[in-house]
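A common beginner's mistake is to predict each chain separately and then try to dock the pieces by hand. The better habit, illustrated here, is to supply every component at once so that their relative placement is modeled jointly.
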Amino acid sequence: MSSGTTRKRPIKAVDNMFHDRITVGMEKIRARIKGSVKNFTEEHRPPPKKVRTAKEIFGGAETPTDKEGNQIMIRVRNLSKIYGKHPQEALRLLEGGLSKEEVQERTPNNVGLYDVSFDVMRGEIFVLMGLSGSGKSTLERCMNRLVEPTSGQVLIDGLDFTALGEEDLRIARREKMSMVFQNFGLLPHRDVKNNVAYGLEMQGVPESERLEKSKTAIDLVGLSGYENSMPSDLSGGMKQRVGLARALATDPDILFMDEAFSALDPLIRSDMQDELIRIQSKLGKTVVFVTHDLDEALKMGDRIALMKDGRIVQVGRAEEILQNPANEYVDRFVREVDRTKILTAGLFMRKPRRVLYVTQGPRTALKLMDSSDRNDMLVINRDNRLLGMVESDDVLRAVQSGDKDLSNVVIREIPSVGPDTPMKEVIQIMVTTDFPIPVVDGDGVFLGVVSPSVAADTMGPGGEE
Amino acid sequence: MMSSPVGVFADKLVDFIEYYFGWLLTLFKEILDLALELLGYVLNYPGPALFILVLIGVSVLITKRIVLPLLIGAAFCIIWWMGYWESSMVTLNMVIVATAVAVIIAVPLGIWAANSENANPVIKALMDFMQTMPAFVYLIPAVIFFGLGAVPGVIATVIFAMPPVVRLTNLGIRQVPREMNEVADAFGSTEWQKLTKVQLPIAMPSIMAGINQCIMLSLSMVVIAAMIGGGGLGGDIVYALSRIDIAMGFEAGLAIVLIAVTLDRLTQSFKEKAIA
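With all components supplied together, the output reads:
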């Protein structure tokens, strides 16, 4: 209250002093009123209206299976989406064998998708991958009908989803599926718990149960303690955790993710990818994941569909696509990001449990090293730039000679790699030292480490030929 | 004097409306009369001293500050001291009723304009017309339909002050990011839920700016409305004008300014709250 700026402006100071008291008082009154209104409404709640549930809607249809007996969750058949005034005419021209460009030249239409067919199995992460404009987002939006397809079918659990009426479509969206958005799509006027509860609110779940389920979902994505924060107070990674929690809160069968991690920093993105893989293996959701990033596709996808110009060029598991590109386009696409380049240090780096700041005293450093059971540790400065590493013997000497910080004992000449360095080279460096290899960007900012165990795991069978 | 067909058409239109929709207009007039009377009773019941105290209390709750409410109290004390209390209450009454009616009509209209590509240009043109047509012109049919007094004043004020609310509601909803609408759809919201739980809250700062504009325009209309017997501070000014009474004109004008600043600051703090 008595800092320099407020003393200069006494009116502000007085105002602020009262502001807090008034806020607290009003909050109490509001809570009391809300409580009594809630009691009243709960006593006088009308019996719930009978609406169909997703189970009833989807119950009639039989889930199809493939040759090996896997259940097909989503079956897309000859799906097309033409934007513009006369879609049928454009569709006829496409059927006549004209290319997308030719049709767009001859008619005022824009071809979003043409004749797309594939199956998504229950419980797999299916990646739709392609450059921007390839129609991957349109395809995903056709699958939950945020975009109405021009022709073709989407079967979900064996039921013709494209034929559902408006009311049934809403119910299916509430209970059967949910979506995570590229720019998070959090409602700015709601706190985290109420954002997460949005889908449940649409389902008509009573408030107490809603908040309970919302809490469970928040815990699941590791955001406990942020229930009452507003979205504007969160970082990008945390916002997308909220987005993920909201999608999971309704316990849907299908999760649509539209470039969900593209807006995040590389390291946070990698964390979120791990998080999604963890959650998916725990809950067994079917995930349709849209991305333009081949690294991400290879990491996340049980199967990948590669798209170009509104058509699917190849569907298959990551190795299949890498080893047997279906045509020249896929080949070029894959080769541009060739294998040694795909497996880069940035992909395998982790945040180390502990690093030391050079300004820390040697005693503190010794204690930290002792508690994490290490004889060596990386040292960074206040700007997050990597300086080098210290060994416990040297730190002990620094303690004895009464140094204030670690600058005298830092070993500055240590090997480091960039996030784009191929793993092959990283491993060659790794053989010569026993330490985790630090990863730094072009400006020397410390990003993470590649530890020998991680590298050994990932370079296992099939990685190196 | 002979009028061109344009004037004749307007004249006939007014006749037509009065002949066929007179009953509706009478109903409307009765409702407005009732609202003005009730609110007038509420405003005048406590008397100046208690009113000012209550006003300070309410301002504290709205702004959650202490200095601004005290300044507002001081402003109303000045009005009381100058001897314009009763006129001020009449003016305040008209402004509040006019703004309420304008918002009740304008917000749904703005929502409609935002959701319909057909309605949008029509509503836009209508709003342009309403805002640029000199305010005096509204007084003529208002007098024919509603006679003299506060009601036609309120009606003319509503027409004049409504456009910003329509425009800013329209704009606010159109500026809701596409992704937000997709969020509402993807989680199975009905159109009503989408509107009330997603679009309106996100558009709220814009709508509040429109309401703030609406209040300011209403206040600027009180003098004009006084020409058809609206009374209040506007009546005092018209009276002062006819007598070239500088002292009275300035005092009444100052009272309007003080009320305007008060209402502006109070609605501004609503807007800030909507943004936060």
